[in-house]
Amino acid sequence: MIIIRKACAQDASVLQTIYRRCVIEAGWRQPTAGVSEDFADVTKGETIWIAVDAQDQALAVLAVQEGDAYIHHLYVDPQAQGQGLGRALLQHLQSRLAFPWRLKCVAQNHDALKFYARMGWHEIEQGLGEDGLYYLLEHAGPLLPTISIE
Predict the structure, then answer these.
(1) Residue (of 58, 45, 51) closest to 15 by Cα position
(2) Which residues belong to any copy of the N-acetyltransferase domain (predicted)?
(3) CA gap 122, 40 in Å, rounded
C-alpha cells in the first residue's frame, strides 16, 4: 500500500538520498552543471509531498511552488520506478492545486519526457539551463483517472 503525505523533518535524509540518486547521479545530467546538491536548499519555500510504503519509507517526492502552480521536483527512487508513484503524486496534487501546471524537464532526461507525454503534458517553450536544453511543459488538467496503488 502506498500513502501520499506531506514531508516532515524526519524525511530529510531519505529525500536527500532520492534527490542524489535521481539528479546528482543522473546519467542525463551535464557533469559541469551547477546544481545544488542539497535537496533542502533547492526546495526552500515549496510544499513537499512524498509517496511512502507501509513502513513509512519514502519512495518518491514531489515539490511544488504553489503560487505559480509550478512543479519544481518530481523524483521516484530508481529502485521504485515503474510502480505508478509519479502518477499517484500528481493525481494527489490535482485536488490541491489549480491547473494549469508547469514544469521544466531537461531534454536529455528521456524517461521523464516519456512519462510526462503519457500523462498529457505539452511543450510550450524551450530554453537553455545548467543541464543544457530543457522543455517547459504544461498540463491544463485534469489528469487521467486516479488509480489505486496497493
Answers:
(1) 58
(2) 2-150
(3) 29
Contact 42, 130 (CB under 8 A): no
For cell 530529510, what's the residue? 12
Fold of 3-139: Aminopeptidase (3.40.630)
CA distance 85 to 100: 21
For the chain, give the number of residues: 150
Q: Structure pTM?
A: 0.89
Collect contacts of 27-34 with beta carbons under 8 A, ≥24 apart.
Answer: 28/106, 28/108, 28/109, 28/110, 28/131, 29/106, 29/108, 29/131, 30/108, 30/130, 30/131, 30/132, 33/130, 33/131, 34/130
C-alpha cell at position 94: 490535482
So where are the chain's domains?
3-139
Query: What is the rounded distance in angstroms from the CA atom of residue 120 to the CA atom of residue 144?
Result: 8
